[in-house]
Amino acid sequence: MLPASRAPRVLVVVPAYNEEASVAAVVAELQAVAPGVDVVVVDDGSRDQTARRARDAGAVVLALPFNLGVGGAMRTGYLYGFRNDYDVVVQVDADGQHDPSQLPLLLAGLAQSNIVVGARFAGVGSYRVRGPRRVAMRLLSGALSRTAGTRLTDATSGFRAVDRAALGLFARHYPAEYLGDTVESLVMAVRAGLTVSQVPVQMRVRTAGVPSQSPLKASLYLGRAVLALALAYVRTRHELLPTTLPVEPREERASS
After folding, report:
1. What is the pTM for the complete model shown?
2. Nearest alpha carbon to residue 69 among 169, 152, 148, 184
3. Residue 82: other Cβ atoms inside 10 A
4. Would you tell me which of 51, 95, 225, 241 could form a disulfide with 206, CB atoms 3.0–4.6 Å apart?
C-alpha cells in the first residue's frame, strides 16, 4: 500500500522489434496523453532504426544484443521497473494498437487486482478474429478464467498493468517462450497468490507492419497456444523459488 500523500510511480514498457515506422509515434502519444508516466522502449535486437527513433522521441531505450521475443523483452522491462522502484508497470505494444488514452482504465483496476488485462472481447470495440485463432483464444480464455476464478475473455492481450507485487514476481520469473508472456504469466501469477481481472478496451489497427493472417499461420497459432497452455499448468506446479536477478541491459537515454 502506498502512503496517501504519494501518487504511484508508473512506468510504461514498450517492447519493440523492427518497429521503426511506428515506435516514435507511440512514444510521442504516450508523452502527450499520459505526461505523468515514464516510458522505456526495450529494443529487442532490432535490425532497423527502432532504437534511434525511440530515443529521439524522448524514451529511455534498453538495447538487447539479440532478439529474445516479447517475453524476454518484457522481463527486461519488468526488471528495470523493479530495480528503479516503480509501483506500476504497463505494457504497451510498439505497433500502435494499444490506445494510451485508456491507461486510466487499467490503472483504476489495480485498486482491486494485482494484474489488469485490457480485453478486446469484452463488449467494447469491433475487434474480431476468425478460424483457428479464434478457437485458440476461446480455449485459452476459458481455461484461464477457471484458474483465476474470474471471467477473462482475452487471455493473449498484451495491454496490461501490474502492481508492485506482480512486478517483483515477473522481474524474476516472467516467461520468455512464445505465448508464455501472456498465457503462462497469468497462470504463474494466480498460483503465486496474485489476483487478475480485466477491463474492456478498444484496440486499434496497427499503424505499421503486416499482421500474419494466413490459414497456415493461424493453424500454427492454435497448436502453439494449446502447447503453451499445457506447459503453463505443468511448469507452475513447482514452487517459484527466488533466483538471482539477471544482469541489466545497456541503457540509452534520450539526448537533451
Report:
1. 0.82
2. 184
3. 19
4. 95
Hey, which residues does 14 pair with through a beta bridge? 41
Cell numbers for 222? 492454435
Rounded distance between C-alpha atoms, residue 248 and residue 189, angstroms: 23
Of 109 and 218, the structure prediction assigns the larger pLDDT to 109
Cα angle 14, 249, 94 (rounded to 5 degrees) comes to 15
**Cβ count within 10 A of residue 228:** 22
Residue 146 lies in a domain: yes
Locate all alpha helices (DSSP H) within 9-126, ordered by sequence.
Answer: 23-33, 50-56, 70-83, 103-109
Q: What are the φ/ψ torsions at residue 229 (nearest 5 degrees)?
A: -65, -45
Q: Compute the distance between CA of residue 250 and CA of residue 86 in angstroms, rounded to an integer.
A: 19
Question: Residue holding cell 533466483?
Answer: 243
Instruction: Give residue 218's domain range.
Output: 10-242
CATH at residue 202: 3.90.550.10
In a domain, 48, yes or no: yes
Q: Which residues contact 58 (CB under 8 A, 6 or more apart)?
A: 27, 28, 31, 39, 254
Question: How far, in Å, CA of 19 to CA of 4, rounded?
Answer: 39
Q: How many domains does the chain have?
A: 1
> CA 133, 139, 145, 146: dihedral to nearest 10 degrees?
-170
Closest CA to 25 of 50, 62, 61, 60: 50
pLDDT tens digits for 43-73? 999 999 999 999 999 999 999 999 999 999 9
pLDDT digit string, tens, across residues 115-131: 999 998 644 555 555 55
> Which amino acid, one-letter code, is at 203?
M
Q: Are 193 and 119 in contact (CB under 8 A)?
A: no
